[in-house]
Design brief:
The strands form two sheets. The protein has a nine-stranded antiparallel sheet with strand order 1-5-9-8-7-6-2-3-4. A nine-stranded antiparallel sheet has the order 13-12-11-10-15-16-17-18-14, covered by helices on one side. The radius of gyration is 32 Å and the shape is elongated. The chain is built from four helices and 18 strands. By secondary structure, the protein is α+β, with helices and mostly antiparallel strands. It has two domains: about 140 residues, no CATH class; about 130 residues, Immunoglobulin-like, CATH 2.60.40.
Length: about 325
């Protein structure tokens, strides 16, 4: 009797183990069938793909505006609505790369007929890829999942299947094409020979010689305090553009028709190819503030207008050179009785 009970217990345990093994295998199989990554026609969106495999255009609709860029070379793109817009090839290539493989957290549903429950009938973002053979693929981003930072997503490659895709994919596509503009290059300005700071009221020249900075306003000349000289060099090296706001030279709109200040840097650069040196001038016009503590700025002679953090210019917008000099050293006087 005891032997029979033991056999029954062993049989139950064996059946339990078999059932658990079957369940694990089913879960593993389900995980294999549920893709961790959604491959969106990798060869079709390869910027360097062969004819018939590569991308020709990317069109996206966001915030009620339609944008389209067209590939003119491996890293050359044009903005269809205005071919004169100076696009940054690297930024446009990143959009292409974004579409190569999209990581999905999970499949939400299959064979979905009512897209409105995910806002996919009126998507937040619609991206259309046109291939070299003129075929098109649509990618739809609906509303965001309330429990994550992902959008409901569907493509025409597999219509009816809804996924969750991280918001970073949708955010890669800008609402403003100016966010794709290629910025002009700024060389290292910290090793300047001179800086001319000109405003409607002042005209100051800062000269660097043997590591010492002096300032001259035409009336007097001062040796600049070591700490303030360091601030001027650091600020000069920090000059950079935040974003492009205009590329047609609408200077008056940004207060750049009569700049509030013009910085002219004269620098000498050693050539890497030859033993000689080259002298270059960099002239930056500074216009109005934009209301968010950013100045509108442009390189003199350029039609591109940018914003730049006003904090960068705090030590450069000098109106009185007497504030730059080394403070006089106070000495104690001993009275003799």
């Amino acid at each position: 009797m005891k032997k029979s009970v033991k056999l029954i217990i062993l049989a139950v345990l064996l059946l339990g183990a078999v059932a658990a093994l079957v369940a694990v295998n089913r879960l593993a199989k389900k995980d294999e069938e549920s893709p961790g990554e959604i491959t969106l026609a990798v060869t079709a969106v390869s910027a360097g793909g062969e004819q018939g495999e590569g991308i020709k255009k990317i069109r996206w609709e966001k915030d009620g505006v339609t944008h389209e860029i067209e590939r003119a070379g491996s890293v050359d793109f044009t903005y269809s609505a205005d071919p004169g817009l100076p696009l940054d090839g690297e930024l446009c290539t990143k959009l292409v790369d974004t579409l190569k493989t999209v990581t999905s957290t999970r499949i939400i549903a299959e064979n979905v007929s009512d897209l409105s429950q995910y806002d996919l009938d009126k998507p937040t973002l619609k991206v259309t890829v046109t291939l070299d053979d003129a075929s098109e693929i649509d990618y739809l981003f609906g509303c965001m999942d309330v429990n994550s930072t992902a959008y409901y997503f569907m493509s025409t490659q597999k219509p009816g299947t809804v996924y969750l895709v991280d918001k970073s994919v949708a955010e890669a596509f800008p609402s403003d094409p100016l966010d794709l503009v290629e910025f002009e290059e700024i060389n290292d300005l910290s090793a300047f020979d001179t800086i001319n700071i000109r405003t409607p009221e002042t005209d100051i020249t800062i000269t660097s010689k043997d590591g010492v900075l002096t300032a001259d306003d035409g009336k007097e000349k001062v040796t600049i305090d070591t700490r303030k000289a360091q601030d001027i060099r650091l600020s000069s090296n920090d000059i950079k553009f935040t974003r492009c706001v205009d590329y047609k030279g609408n200077y008056k709109e940004y207060g750049l028709d009569t700049p509030s200040c013009t910085l002219t840097y004269s620098c000498t650069y050693q050539s890497e190819d030859t033993e000689g040196a080259s002298e270059e001038d960099f002239v930056l016009n500074i216009g109005n503030l934009d209301g968010n503590n950013y100045y509108y700025v442009c390189i003199d002679g350029s039609k591109l207008i940018y914003t730049a953090d006003s904090a960068i210019f705090e030590s450069l917008l000098i109106s009185d050179i007497s504030t730059l000099g080394t403070a006089p050293v106070e000495t104690e006087t001993t009275l003799q009785n």
